Amino acid sequence: MKELKLALLGFGNAGRAFARLLLDKEAEIEARYDTRVIVTAIATHSRGNLVDPRGIDLAAALTELSEKGHFAKSVSGTTMDIVTGADYDVLVEMTPLQILTGQPAIDHIKGAFRRRKHVVTANKGPIAWAYDQLAQMAQEQGVFFFYETTVMDGTPVFNLAELTLKMARVTEISGILNTTTNYILEELAAGKPYDKIIATGRKLGFIEADAAMDIEGYDAAAKLTALLNVLMDAHMTPDRVDRTGIENITVADIEAAAKQDCCIKLVCRGAMENGQVVATVKPTLVPRGDLLATIDSTSSVVSLTTDLMGKLSVVEHAPLIEQTAYGIFGDVLRVLDGIHG
Ligand SMILES: NC(=O)c1ccc[n+]([C@@H]2O[C@H](COP(=O)([O-])OP(=O)(O)OC[C@H]3O[C@@H](n4cnc5c(N)ncnc54)[C@H](OP(=O)(O)O)[C@@H]3O)[C@@H](O)[C@H]2O)c1
Questions:
Q1: For 23-48, how does the pLDDT look when each residue is reduced to its tens digit (9 = 90+)?
Q2: Structural domain includes residue 41
Q3: Is the same domain home to 223 and 300?
Q4: Mean pLDDT within 136-143
Q5: Residue nearest to ligand 1 atom 18, measured at CA
Q6: Is residue 160 part of a domain?
Q7: Distance CA 281, CA 263 (A)
Q8: What is the spatial distance between Cα 46 and Cα 56, in angstroms, rounded to a whole number?
Q9: What is the pLDDT of residues 168-179, one digit of tens each?
């Protein structure tokens, strides 16, 4: 039986959910691909690193982290040491998003490409800040580079366009891409006070400890940029998005919208105007009957307008961490398909 070796950079919510899915599907992968997918390295920021070229016992690693919070037999060295030195075929980039730079994830990915390793990233920073350069490096090195999880978790968006909308040109992308702001706006409309919404959202895990990057529209701008770079060759970075967050939206604004039978949503849009892609993220009045008005709480939607297939929309309904894991898993399967194909 063949082997595919993965190095996991980051072993937090996404990394652990992905590890659980790999364990669940181990037998099915082996049967379908005649390949054992093993994890040969795990890097974290504060819990230590594991390295074993014969394959880490993933179930034991998960148990150890949940019981002790760190790896007892940690290998010393930096994350970059793992990128440049460990024995793996696919680097899986799952470190936290640095929304204003995309680093150090961009350097992790470049390091893997230099060694002719495939890369799967759940981290959108590199796609928003350095997509052109990374895609070119992957092509030059003859390796796969997949990033489905970076926008709407495992929901097929990039794959939808690339694999099923052959030769259709995307001319406009729009949608609701940030669930934190969607949740806050909906709770405000339901009459709840802002402080209580934030406290409850944090308790339920919908809102990060530092929600400013969501509330001020930076996260939505990064996701929109990633979509525009890949699907519309926009060659842009998130700082070129005309961005307004929801921080100044008041209950009075929401009530005024309701009087017009509308709601307020943080809408992302990118389209060709005068030969270049123009991108905006801003609070927008949406009529109640519109698809966007039905996207509630932690759900999200993206609409692609194309020349050959008109406009089509994909909705992700209230995802859990398992949908993030599936996005990463699906990309690893694409690597397997590519290697076997
Ligand atoms: N969670 C989701 O639903 C979701 C959905 C789509 C995309 N993503 C993306 O997936 C990535 C991971 O998300 P997450 O929710 O798993 O985050 P998380 O729970 O905060 O976990 C991040 C992991 O990365 C580790 N880490 C931090 N800096 C590192 C470094 N320089 N080198 C190596 N490891 C490092 C952390 O180490 P410690 O354990 O020591 O802190 C932790 O294990 C992010 O880029 C996120 O935007 C997440």
A1: 999 999 999 999 999 999 999 999 99
A2: yes
A3: yes
A4: 98
A5: 12
A6: no
A7: 16
A8: 19
A9: 999 999 999 999
